Amino acid sequence: MPSVTVLYDADCGLCVWVMGKVLAWDGRRRLRPVALDAPEAEPLVGDLGEEERMASWHIVLPDGRRESAGRALAPLLRLLPGGRPLAALVERFPDFADRAYFALAGRRSALGKLVTAGARRRARERIARRASAV
Fold this sequence. Notes:
The chain is α+β, with helices and mostly antiparallel strands and 134 residues long. The chain has one domain (4-133). Helices cover 54% and strands 12% of the residues. A four-stranded mixed β-sheet has the order 2-1-3-4. The radius of gyration is 14 Å and the shape is globular. The termini are close together. The model has no long low-confidence stretch (mean pLDDT 92).
């Protein structure tokens, strides 16, 4: 059973592609993808305003703690094979991680155009398989 919920924007091509890549990296199947606009997301991020909710991705850890944007990277990386050294680096520079995240997120529409339709389709299929396995 996945131990961490990853909330992502299912209408963002780049976000879907990244979610698919993260799930491919997650060989232990510890991550559960949930679209931010899915009813299942409401209890996890319902306390956030719509703008804050959709401004970034979020993870919810087994203890109920939620992390968002760049600060969600370290907890996520710790769960992925080989990710601990990267997590340690991100933890040392959390403000940089947030700035880098928002720099990319602010360009996600343009960056999403670089993701091919086939890559988005494969990512959506991977997400659907993982979501249905939970």
